[in-house]
Amino acid sequence: MKRSKRFEKLEQMPINKDGFSYEWEEVGLITMESRFDPKPSIKVENGVIVEMDGIKREDFDSLDKFIADYGIKVENAEKAMAMDSLEIARMLVDINVPREEITEICMSCTAAKLAEIVSHLNVVEMMMAQMKMRARKTPANQAHATNLDDNPVLIAADAAEEGARGFAEVETTCALARYAPFNAIALMIGGQAGRAGVLNQCSMEEATELELGMRGFTSYAETLSVYGTEQVLIDGGDTAYSKAFLASAYASRGIKIRYTSGTGSEVLMGDAEGKSALYLEIRCLMLTKACGVQGIQNGSINAIPLMAALPNGFRAITAENLIASMLNIEVAAGNDTAFTHSDFRRGAKLVMTMMPGTDYISSGYGGIPNLDNVFAGSNEDCDDYDDYYTLQRDMQVDGGLNPIKEETAIEVRNKAARAMQAVFEGLGLPEITDEEVEAATYAYCYKDMPARNKVEDMKAATEMMEKGTTVIDIIKILHEAGFEDVAENLMNQMKQRVIGDYLHTSAVFDENYNVISAVNDRNDYMGPGTGYRISEDRWNVLKEKFSALKPQEI
Amino acid sequence: MAKLDAVKDYPVYEKHPELIKTPTGKPVEEITMEAILKGEVTADDCKIAPETLELQAQIQESFGNPQVAANFRRAAEMTRIPDERILEIYNCMRPHVSTKEELLAIAEELEEKYDAKINAALVREAAEVYENRGMLKKF
Fold first, then answer.
1. Residue A43 bridge partners (DSSP)
2. What's the number of domains chain A is made of?
3. Residues A178, A458: contact at Cβ < 8 Å?
4. What residues of A are labeled active site?
């Protein structure tokens, strides 16, 4: 065939480097609305659910049982299940129906019922519903801070810059697991050097992550993965019962947590029981509810390359974020994994949570270059800051970030790096040189950092844990080394653990460590003039574009 | 005392600072930089007390989340269990790790040693379910 020059050019476009696939319904390779998904049903006898979505109690697997016994408000279940799903879908976009009325209904529904409700919505209706249903009135955002070398000085500097840019939470992980204690304390110190009140987590294997929290090196945890089939949950090394126990273990140490799940993970792990990705994700959300965990990180997460390859992928992902909110669960909404070569497409993905606002618009905006992202990249990174700010300015939408000047970034990065230098010296860890401090202050990526002796670092990190070092030791060192404000911020973070007000749904802190959660910042959206509105002060921050013309001055 | 209410009594520390103490019985205001530097406040002071978790459970109950309240009540019991033992018990509850007898022994330990009745019931239920679903230790 003689080729069309336009088709030849199209083939070269970034979008055509992405992978695409049709569905295979029988194995569960479908985003939502599969012919093989269970139909909604419930039977209650003496306050016990004896049938759920067509399965009789005697045939329940461990996950069915846990959800039926703990995840559904049984008192109203038969009434809620008898309502017309289309009617409930319309309530979601009806400005006259308050959020609480809908959460009460949804918390009494089965997974198949919730799937049926959202199947009536198109994406714009889902976004409208998300604006009303997210738990916390004020939206926020979360950042990744990692690098390929696990350089702790660079992590601290990056976390500080992220704090200054307004992220409510920062998250790190490791390329090499033995670096975890250093990465965790780097993130903690850096975050507090950037802005008081930033929450910090180090994503590791379950037991390690809990131990870091117990030492006071992290203030929340998120990487507690749940899956929507019994077999995949077991393959992930857990059961509903072990996960529930783990959740309470964190709360018993005053540490906030959320679970992690996402459409597509079960079929990727090879056992979707022939059900759609969204149906199984709803089971994850109901397990989260059943375990009494206040929040979820979802939005396909690591499985997004698969979900985005299938028809209706973004709609299903928008639906999973929305259903979490419908169950009164905090949502850290994904947008945290690289999945496309197309800037057009990743921008479109982002706006689906950025425009309505979620509790955290991204559960990992890369505040670092993509090449340094030890998670699977992110949908947005440090090269995109000005695009993000401009979208906030163009649309008068609050994406949770604020523009900062270059000198501010340099100042907080330098402070964080120097604080790390002092802490390493105080704890007797391998030296952080002045050259490293300087490099971290101005770095773009790990390549700009002098190499550290990794073997020595990992050995020292292990010894630090064996010695029983806690955040209290770090607070003392920082104070004595002249970083009184960072020490004070860390102390205030420790106080919050004693208090427990931030264990609640969607809780974050402002820079004075005042807690802002779904309990005291309830989303009261009921149409124009209600819900979250950008104040004049906030708008002055959001519209800042340092390079923009001031026409009066010309 | 009446149960705390999500609208009236939250944030609990702001509304009722006198209700919150460290597990060592200190008021929160005693956690100061001076006290930390003198060694008067240690990591043990910077933990949540079971009484505080009960108050926070009441907040979630009136916020419409009875499951989160139940989680906080399990947590209140767990404040009595040392870090290391919590990690060990968690590992024992993972699939195919323990026999039924081992899980039942943990339930008894939770009840007898730590007065953790809710957690003991959870582990007993797990033992039952694991047996029915083939999730116990495989020999």
1. A51
2. 1
3. yes
4. 142, 144, 171, 222, 297, 336, 363
CA triple A347-A350-A355, angle to 5 deg: 115
Q: How far is residue B121 from each of residues A26, A230, A397, B116, B135, measured CA to CA in Å?
A: 39, 21, 48, 9, 18
Any domain includes A419: no
Q: Please determine, for residue B1, whether its predicted confidence score (pLDDT) is greater than 80.
A: no
3-state secondary structure A423-450: HHHHCCCCCCCHHHHHHHHHCCCHHHCC
Nearest to B139 by CA among B78, B98, B109, B107: B98
Residue A210: closest CA among A174, A264, A247, A237:
A247
**Could you read off the pLDDT of A332-353 as tens digits, one per residue?**
999 999 999 999 999 999 999 9
Backbone φ, ψ for residue A421 (5° rounding): -60, -45
The rounded distance, in Å, linking the Cα atoms of B9 and B13 is 9
Residue with token string 């790790």: B97
**Helix H segments across A134-229?**
152-164, 180-194, 206-214
DSSP secondary structure string for all residues of A522-551? B----STTSS----HHHHHHHT--TTS--G
What three-state secondary structure class fits A199?
A: strand
Structure tokens at A462: 């292990």
Query: What are the chain B neighbours of A241 within 8 Å (beta carbons)?
Result: 93, 122-123, 125-126, 129-130
Contact A66, A241 (CB under 8 A): yes
Q: What is the pLDDT of residues A279-336, one digit of tens each?
A: 999 999 999 999 999 999 999 999 999 999 999 999 999 999 999 999 999 999 999 9
**Edge-to-edge strands of the sheet including A259-260?**
A259-260, A295-297, A330-332
Domain coverage including residue A108: 42-116
Closest by Cα among A169, A118, A176 to A148: A176
Torsion of CA A246, A248, A252, A255, to 10 degrees: 70
Q: Is B24 part of the contact surface with chain A (CB cutoff 8 Å)?
A: no
Give A144's strand partners.
A171, A366
Place B77 in a pLDDT band, splitting at 50, 70 and 90: very high
B126/A520 Cβ within 8 A = no
Q: Does the beta carbon of A482 lie under 8 angstroms from any beta carbon of chain B? A: no
Decide if A104 is inside a domain: yes
Kindly determine whether residue B68 and residue A104, on different chains, have CB atoms separated by under 8 Å: no
CA atoms lying within 13 Å on the CB side of residue A265: 27
CB nearest to A211's CB, from B32, B87, B129:
B87
Chain A contact present for B36, CB below 8 A: yes
Residue carrying the six token digits 């993972």 = B94
Round to whole Å and give the CA distance between B45 and B27. Answer: 10
Q: Tell whether A91 is covered by a domain.
A: yes
pLDDT in tens, A225-270: 999 999 999 999 999 999 999 999 999 999 999 999 999 999 999 9
pLDDT surpasses 80 at A133: yes
Sheet containing A169-172: order of strands: A199-202, A169-172, A142-144, A363-366
- Asked if the C-beta of B61 comes within 8 angstroms of chain A's C-beta atoms, the answer is no
Q: Provide ipTM, 2 decimals.
A: 0.98
pLDDT at residue number A540: 98
Give the per-residue pLDDT at A536. Answer: 98
Task: Go through chain B and tell me how many residues it has.
Answer: 139
A368 occurs within a structural domain: no
Rounded-to-integer distance, Cα A308 and Cα A46, Å: 44
Nearest Cα neighbor of A241 from B114, B72, B81, B127 is B127
| CB-CB neighbors (< 8 A) of A213 in chain B | none
Residue of B66, B68, B45 whose CA lies nearest to A499: B45
